[in-house]
Amino acid sequence: MSAGIPQGDSWVHAALDALHRSLDDDRSPIEFHPAAGDASPLWSIRGDVPPDQAAAIVRTSGSTGTPKQTRLSAAALESSLRATAQALGGHGQWLLTLQPSYVAGLAVLSRSLAAGSVPIPLLQDTTDPERFTEAAQRLTGQRRYVSLVPTQLQRLLDHVPEHPSLAAVLSRFDVILLGGGPGSPALLESARGQGLTVVRTYGMSETCGGCVYEGCPLPGVRLSTEGSGRVRITGPVVASGYVGDDELTAAHFSQDAETGMRSFLTDDLGEIRTDAQGQQLVISGRVDDVINTGGVKVSAARVRAALLTHPLVRDAVVGPVPDLEWGQMVGAALLLAPAGAAAGTIEQPQLERELKDLVRGALGPPAAPRRLLLLTELPLLSSGKPDRQQLLHLLAEGPGREEREDTTWQH
C-alpha cells in the first residue's frame, strides 16, 4: 500500500501512519486497543507474533463467548478494502464511529489509507444527535461513508424527529454500512423512510469484516455450506488464524483445494441460493443457537424473527435458560419501542401473552418463550453489539427484576 499520509497532530494521523508501516514493512503486527473514556485509542506492536504471520491483530468482540485474537495479513486487508471500494462505487471519506480495536474500525482506517483521506473520528457519544451532526458535517470527501451497528442507527433515527439537521447529514452519506448483527425489519423500513442508503453486511474479524453485502459475496469471495448447514467463506479476505491457539485455528481455517485460497468455517448456519446475479446468502442461525427444550429443538434465530414482527418489539436476544424439568427453556430479552411510538396502552401481562401467542402460532408451542425480559435499553458491549452473555444471565435469574416491576407499558 503506497498512499501518502496527510500530516497533522490528531491521533488519527499517527494511527494511519502506524498502520501504514505495519502493512508496508516487514514489521511485527499492530494491535489497536479500546479508548478509555474520552481518551484517544492506543496501539502496540505485537513483537510476540512473527511479521510473516500477520500485519494486524484484532480481538473478536466476545459477544458469544471468549474473545479470540485474529491474525490479519496485509494481503487480506488490502483485498478487503479493494473489494469494498468496488462494491460501493469507489473510495471515499469515512466517519469513524467504531473503535479501531474492532475489525470494522480497523477497516475504516485501512480504507482511508487506500483513499488517501483522513476519517473523521467520533468514538464517544456516537448517537448523540448534535455530536454526530457536527462530526458528519466535517466530512469534505466527494463520497461519504459510515459503518454502524444496528443499535447506533436505531438510536440516531429515534432522534430525527427532534433534530431535522440529523436527518440531513444522514442523507448525505452515499452508503451506510450496517453490520455487527442483523437489523430488524422495522429499523430498515425506518431508514428507507428517511431516504437513507443502507447496505447490510455480513462478516467477522476472521474475514476482515464484512465480505457479504445484501447477501451477495464481495468480488473474490466464494460461499459454500457444510452438510450441517454451516457457512464456509473462501477468498483472499480470510485471516491467517488465531494467535496462540493452533487447535482452534485448525478447526476453522483451511486451504481450499480448488482455488488455493484460505477458507474459514463459521459458526453460522445458512442457505446459499444461486440466481442470475450470483450467490445469495441467507443466514438462518448459529450452530450454538439451538435450544433443546424437553427433547424438542428450537431455533433461537427463528424465535427472534417471529418476535420482531410485533410492532412494539425493536430488538430481541433469544437463548436457552436452564430448567430443571425441561433441561432448557426458551428465554427472550426484548427491547421495546419507546413510549409514544404507537397509540394506546398495553399492560405487561397482555403484551407477554401476545408475544408468546405470536411465537406459538408461527413456530409451535415448544418455541413460545417461557421467560421474557422487557427492557427499554439493552446492555451493550463496547463494540455496540448487545451483550448476549449478560442478557442470558439476567434471563436465568428469572422474573422480578427492577425492569419488570412496572406492569404497564405506554405506547
TrEMBL record:
Keywords: Ligase. Residues 305-385 form the AMP-binding enzyme C-terminal domain. Residues 48-217 form the AMP-dependent synthetase/ligase domain. InterPro entries: AMP-bd_C (IPR025110), AMP-bd_C_sf (IPR045851), AMP-binding_CS (IPR020845), AMP-dep_synth/lig_dom (IPR000873), ANL_N_sf (IPR042099), ATP-dep_AMP-bd_enzyme (IPR050237). GO terms for molecular function: o-succinylbenzoate-CoA ligase activity. The keyword Transport does not apply. It holds the Pfam family AMP-binding_C. The keyword DNA repair does not apply. Its EC number is 6.2.1.26. It comes from the Bacteria. This is O-succinylbenzoic acid--CoA ligase. It comes from Nesterenkonia lutea. The lineage of its organism: Bacteria, Bacillati, Actinomycetota, Actinomycetes, Micrococcales.
